[in-house]
Amino acid sequence: MDRQEVKLSRPAADPASATVVEEVRRVAPDVREQGDRLRFTGDLVARIEPFTRPGRVEIYHCPDGWLLYCYDSVKDNWACAGSTLEQMIGRLEEDSLAHLVRAGLERSGHLGPR
C-alpha cells in the first residue's frame, strides 16, 4: 500500500474536523495530521466524478478496511469508513449517494452487481 493524502476543509486540529479524522483512523491507524491534510496508508481504488452534489468521491483500500473520502462542493469535506465495502456503503446517510457509489464501484470491478 502507498502513502495517500486527503485535504480537509479545516485544519485537522479544528474540532470541526474531528469526525473526519476519526473516520480515517478507523481503517488507517497510521494517520499523520499536517495542517489541513491527512496522510495515511492505503490504495486509491476508485475516483467517482463528476458527482451530482458532492463534487468528487475517492475510495481507498486501507490496512483495516475501506475509506470513502468526499470532496464536497457545498459543505465541508467528509469521510465514511467500514471494514468491508458493503459496510462502508451501508453507513452512507443518503440512499442516492450510496447508489452512485455502488454503481461506480461496480463499474470499476471492485464490487459485484447486486
Give a structural overview:
By secondary structure, the protein is of the alpha+beta class. It has one domain. Helices cover 25% and strands 37% of the residues. The protein has 3 helices and 6 strands. The chain has helices spanning 18-27, 85-90, 95-107, and strands spanning 2-7, 32-34, 37-48, 55-62, 65-72, 78-82. Strands 1, 2, 3, 4, 5 and 6 form a 6-stranded antiparallel β-sheet that branches. Strand 2 and strand 3 form a beta hairpin. The radius of gyration is 13 Å and the shape is globular. The termini are far apart. The model has no long low-confidence stretch (mean pLDDT 91).
What key attributes describe this structure?
114 residues, alpha+beta, single chain, 37% strand, 3 helices, six-stranded antiparallel β-sheet
